[in-house]
Design goal:
The protein is an alpha+beta fold. It has helices at 14-22, 49-60, 68-85, 91-104, 118-129, 140-155, 187-201, 204-216, 356-360; strands at 4-8, 29-33, 38-41, 44-46, 237-247, 255-260, 269-273, 287-292, 298-300, 303-305, 308-309, 311-313, 320-322, 324-325, 337-338, 364-366, 372-374, 377-378, 380-381, 389-392, 400-401. Strand 3 and strand 4 (44-46) form a beta hairpin. It starts with a strand and ends with a strand.
Amino acid sequence: MAAAILKLPENSATEVLLVYKYTKAESVANIETATDVSLEVSGEKYDGVTTICKYLASKTQPELLGDGKENQAEIEAWSSWALTAFKGVPSKELNAALQKLNEHLLGRTFLVGNQISLADLIVFAHVHQISKNLRVKSTPNVLRWFDLIQNIVVIKNDLVKNFALLEINLDDVPEPEAPKKEKKGDKKGDEKKGAEKKEEGGKKGDKKDKKEKKEKKEKKPAAPAEPEQPVFTRLDIRVGYIRKCEKHPDADSLYVEEIDCGDGEGVYRTIVSGLVKWYPVEEMQNRWVIVMANLKPASMRGIKSAGMVLCASAPDGSKVELLKPVDTSKVKPGDRIYIEGLEGEPEKQLPPKKKYFEAVQPDFNTKDDKIAYFQDKPFLIKTASGEPVKCEAATVQGGGIK
């Protein structure tokens, strides 16, 4: 039974509700309806949306608070900014806020760092309320980010009842382009400006000649399009073996594992996982796992994590279980996972801007047989003998995988 009481007004404080639901903070606090937002813990009262959200995250998913003082300060700044940028402001100020967000998200997947943070949740909750103002032409980067968050947060955690989905066709959203910086004293730029002035004062006959020459230029035939590689095949998902595991020195909810991923003899990866709540450290030793191996390394509370162990989560959030090969006697560290009928080589490292993992991960699932699937096709391990081996969770049926 949770000792804390979270008081929320109806149809208000949606950012707190989103953080509460996403972090599955039911074990931390019970919700009661009230006129003002507050959190009472053992007689102590917490006020302020950001303070309450930080408390809930610290007790459930502390990685949402960021790694290092710089990231933490930036998360705090964006969270506080959202509280005033979108609520009850004139349309001119609202558009200015959206433009600021759009410019910041140019070339970024998340607001801060390389993984979702508290800032993404809080800002998303506010943008969701004014999502009718989002336009492809003016805020393409916000739309791309919004679509990602509603997929990995709202859809993945079955929160559609609280946060209605915004239909977004990403085919209509242009790829982000970095702004071109004009160099000072650019000779070509100066020459171009001089040519323009000369043209303005020149004869009309000169313009006509230029136009005729331009029209005579032949267009080069477009190069044939390369066949699109299935996104799943760009992922490097492998069999791994945990050699040892210990608690993270600076985060109570995280483990630091040394995993053999088949990178070479004596070469092991350090991977950080938020599994303290689900496994005692004794059960994390000497066990087979399935590893997402080509994510960009990310620092988690001061320790760089070079991958991610894949887990199946029960639909009601009551269980999280590591995936493993069905028959460990037939596999070795480094054996790759594939999907029958999908061809292609994995990327050496997934480019964060492309969001390949985020695009396919919502289709990872377990069914009644507890086997891991991509859509309706099972994860298969390519073994040395050529005999495919499936992957499974211990008990989770009908769950998601991440």
